[in-house]
Write a structure and sequence with these properties.
Elements: H1 5-17, H2 28-35, H3 42-46, H4 64-80, H5 84-100, H6 109-138, H7 166-184, E1 190-194, E2 204-208, E3 215-219, E4 227-233, H8 244-252, E5 257-264
Parallel strand pairs: 3-5
Antiparallel strand pairs: 1-2, 2-3, 4-5
Protein name: DUF3891 family protein
Pfam family, one: DUF3891
């Protein structure tokens, strides 16, 4: 089953919208950013490629320079929507991945240069977007007005209420991203996610996959109520493919399915 990265990001947005916020909750601009944080994958999702084993290449197997390009497109999409707070948030998300998840020792000289350029460019842009946020607020434009730019109708619009700190919003993106990835991959067993935002009495949650079910249990439960939704995916034969073109033809000729899922307490 192939789940597009754009679909995974939509589910992260659905999870964020269902979060059990206690005192403050992010505005629509932040929620739109979470739901659209992998928008740069759209063209890659449409033309999947193979790994060395002839299987569809996962997001973890992308060459570094290609990842930087995808991240750049994702960030730029939000900036083009004039969602500057969202662009800054998603830039921070990918900067964190670039600085903490990439094995620098395995980068070629050109890849190392590309990484440095990505980091420098987007750290500078983050400062510019922060200034634009301030200008918007000074002009009386609520960042929640940007929620109408969200292209995913499944994400419930949020009322105009005070937003949390940038660090909390970034951690919300990261946690919802992790939960969605656990749901969308072949994860089994249990995993612990620490540093849970917007929940005063919860430092970490344990995520498990119920046997034989497409869903997750979360303990303690961070959402307002059980979350039942769906994922759009492509079911293709599990076999080695001879070429990228063969894989792309199979995907293009396959109608997507809708797979229901449930997030619930243990």
């Amino acid at each position: 089953m192939l789940i597009p990265q754009v679909e995974h990001a939509r589910i992260a947005g659905v999870i964020a919208a269902a979060w059990n916020f206690r005192k403050a909750r992010p505005g629509g601009a932040i929620m739109s950013a979470i739901a659209n944080h992998d928008h740069g994958w759209a063209e890659v999702d449409a033309r999947p490629t193979l790994n060395h084993d002839g299987a569809p290449r996962s997001f973890l197997e992308m060459p570094p320079k290609e990842s930087f390009s995808i991240w750049t497109r994702s960030i730029a999409h939000l900036a083009e929507m004039k969602n500057y707070s969202g662009a800054r948030l998603v830039a921070a998300h990918f900067i964190y991945l670039a600085e903490n998840e990439i094995n620098m020792a395995r980068l070629s000289p050109r890849e190392a240069i590309a990484l440095g350029q990505f980091l420098a460019e987007h750290k500078k842009l983050m400062e510019q977007w922060k200034e634009l946020e301030t200008e918007h607020q000074s002009a009386g434009l609520s960042l929640n007005d940007l929620s109408k730019t969200n292209t995913h109708s499944d994400v419930t619009p949020l009322p105009a209420v005070p937003t949390g700190t940038f660090a909390e919003d970034l951690r919300l993106l990261q946690v919802c991203d992790q939960i969605s990835l656990l749901l969308c991959t072949d994860f089994t067993g249990s995993a612990t996610i620490a540093d849970i935002p917007y929940l005063d009495d919860c430092d970490s949650i344990t995520v498990t996959r119920p046997n034989g079910k497409f869903g997750l249990t979360l303990t303690p439960f961070p959402l307002r109520k059980n979350l039942r939704d769906h994922i759009s995916a492509y079911v293709i034969p599990r076999k080695p493919y001879a070429s990228d073109e063969e894989l792309q033809q199979v995907v293009a000729s396959t109608a997507p399915i809708t797979q229901e899922f449930l997030l619930s307490p243990a």
